[in-house]
């Protein structure tokens, strides 16, 4: 692969990933971290190295194991984050490994994936079932835990001004004497 083709493929990848990142973070409570885009760039360069050097299949399994361990050692990801990671890694694999001499085909594949992602992302934001914005966190004193269920509902109705809701206890901090509640509406 010539240097010009390498830069063209990298540019296609970066434009695709930045577009996905920009439209994924618009109008959301939970935002994707900017460094997630770096995963696709790293995967792109790893694919280039693996195509140029003789590595065994064990190296690929080793990398997979590292990513698996990281997955279980970090906080849980939202569906939005997992889909973004999968799409960005897929794009980087395509851009790095697809043996196409005509880069217009590669650009068309990238545009197709990005457009489908954006359309589905738009529908996801409009769907009340999948919306991530239907809860709030309420901080209360530990006395809240000693109340009867009807009294708890009354207190939460006063604090949130919501009529129909459910709640669960997110965390209890004995040092600060507070309870953090997740109220879904």
UniProtKB/TrEMBL annotation:
Under InterPro entries, the record lists: DUF4956 (IPR032531)
Q: Which UniProt keywords apply?
A: Membrane, Transmembrane, Transmembrane helix
Transmembrane region(s): 6-23, 35-51, 57-74, 81-99, 105-123
Instruction: Indicate the secretion signal residues.
Output: none
State one Pfam family annotation: DUF4956
Q: Indicate yes or no for the key word Cytoplasm.
A: no
Q: Where on the tree of life does the source sit, at the highest rank? A: Bacteria
Does the keyword Membrane belong to this entry? Answer: yes
Q: What is this protein called?
A: DUF4956 domain-containing protein
């Amino acid at each position: 692969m010539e240097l010009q083709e390498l830069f063209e493929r990298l540019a296609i990848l970066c434009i695709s990933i930045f577009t996905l990142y920009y439209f994924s973070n618009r109008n959301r409570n939970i935002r994707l971290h900017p460094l997630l885009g770096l995963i696709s760039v790293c995967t792109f360069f790893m694919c280039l190295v693996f195509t140029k050097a003789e590595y065994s299949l064990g190296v690929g399994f080793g990398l997979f194991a590292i990513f698996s361990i990281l997955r279980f050692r970090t906080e849980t990801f939202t569906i939005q984050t997992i889909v973004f990671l999968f799409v960005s890694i897929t794009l980087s694999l395509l851009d790095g490994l697809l043996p196409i001499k005509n880069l217009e085909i590669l650009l068309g594949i990238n545009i197709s994936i990005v457009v489908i992602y954006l359309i589905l992302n738009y529908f996801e934001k409009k769907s009340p079932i999948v919306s991530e914005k239907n809860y709030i966190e309420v901080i209360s004193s530990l006395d809240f835990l000693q109340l009867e269920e009807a009294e708890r509902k009354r207190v939460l109705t006063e604090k949130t001004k919501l009529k129909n809701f459910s709640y669960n206890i997110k965390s209890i901090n004995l040092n600060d004497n507070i309870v953090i509640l997740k109220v879904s509406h």
